[in-house]
Design brief:
Layout: E1 4-6, H1 17-29, E2 34-37, E3 43-48, E4 55-59, E5 62-68, E6 70-75, E7 78-82, E8 86-90, E9 94-102, E10 109-115, H2 118-128, E11 143-147, H3 150-162, H4 169-185, H5 190-197, H6 202-215, H7 223-229, H8 234-245, H9 249-268, H10 272-278, H11 284-295, H12 299-307
Parallel strand pairs: 1-7
Antiparallel strand pairs: 2-3, 3-10, 4-9, 5-8, 5-10, 6-7, 6-9, 8-11
Helix pairs in contact: 1-3, 2-4, 2-5, 3-4, 6-8, 6-9, 7-8, 9-10
Length: 314
């Protein structure tokens, strides 16, 4: 399979003092490796001190900004590289494989992940008098990278600075988050957000189908019934779903099942056979085969590796 790499042209010098300040602040806020919730709920801070192998995970709709180091994410035959010069937008829930490429104890990988508020995006579009934009781009893959602008970097820095004054967060953080989403909306990836917010668009319909599958991942998926619920034909649903997620609805459901089983085994100590049944598998052997195919090892061994710290940061 031929991979297609997305890596926009660099727009700023990587030694921008604002970038350095942002990296210093994030490193101070998260002195240990891991995925850390911040005092502002929509914002998550991530740190890793070493590169990792490709790690399958589920990406939620968000803006991902690497402030130090670099990472790549693979979905289907597409590879997305992002670093301090480029940011990633994920417009729908997507199972993908992420790999941290540059990280060390002295220069750890540092990343900000800000949840996308589709209602806020819709309000911004209304105020700006925008519609869904170019309809030919509606229904594109729900992941993309673009060059970081100075205006977006300024807005991100303002939000991170607010984490040092928690009493200001309830009043000022919503405005800072709004500005960030405004800058993305007006930038090179604005179409990703506009199409998600348009209720009768293809991307929005696929997002609704994803939400249904997530709420019913343990049930038998009948594509005809799902298409009817989305007011689409089965062939149209299959085509549009694959365009946005790089997989069919059934493949998407299978990945969600495997990720949920992994969470149950790791977080709740559930046995593999019990977790398999909980997420909808009737055959433990089929579950083990598909789990190994996705995560690279049988369930018990892979979970032990996670518990021992052998799996890298998402």
């Amino acid at each position: 399979m031929q991979l297609h790499t997305d890596h926009p042209r660099e727009a700023r010098a990587v030694d921008d003092p604002r970038q350095q300040e942002l990296a210093e602040r994030v490193a101070r806020l998260v002195p240990a490796d891991g995925v850390h919730p911040s005092a502002w709920a929509p914002l998550t801070l991530i740190r890793a001190s070493a590169p990792n192998q490709g790690l399958p995970s589920v990406y939620e709709p968000s803006l991902c900004v690497v402030v130090q180091g670099s990472k790549r994410t693979l979905i289907g035959d597409r590879v997305f590289h992002y670093d301090p010069l480029n940011y990633l937008v994920v417009s729908v829930t997507l199972p993908a494989v992420g790999q941290i490429l540059e990280a060390s104890p002295e220069q750890p990988y540092l990343c900000l992940r800000l949840a996308i508020d589709t209602e806020e995006v819709a309000r911004l579009m209304l105020e700006l008098g925008q519609d869904g934009g170019d309809e030919s781009r509606d229904g594109e893959l729900g992941m993309c990278v673009a060059s970081m602008s100075g205006e977006l970097l300024d807005a991100l820095l303002r939000l991170v600075c607010l984490l040092d004054t928690p009493r200001d967060l309830p009043v000022l953080a919503p405005a800072a988050s709004r500005e960030i989403q405004y800058r993305v909306l007006m930038g090179g990836l604005g179409h990703q957000l506009r199409h998600l917010a348009v209720h009768d668009g293809r991307t929005h319909r696929v997002a609704r189908a994803i939400d249904w599958i997530r709420s019913n991942y343990d049930r038998t998926l009948r594509v005809d019934s799902l298409a009817e619920a989305m007011h689409m034909s089965p062939s149209s649903l299959h085509h549009q779903f694959k365009a946005v997620t790089a997989m069919s609805p059934l493949q998407f459901q299978k990945q969600l099942r495997l990720h949920e089983a992994r969470r149950l085994m790791f977080s709740e100590g559930m046995e593999a056979a019990v977790a398999a049944h909980r997420v909808g598998y009737e055959s433990p052997s089929q579950f083990s085969r598909e789990y190994r195919r996705l995560f690279g090892a049988p369930p018990r061994r892979e979970v032990k590796a996670m518990q021992a710290g052998g799996v890298g940061t998402v």
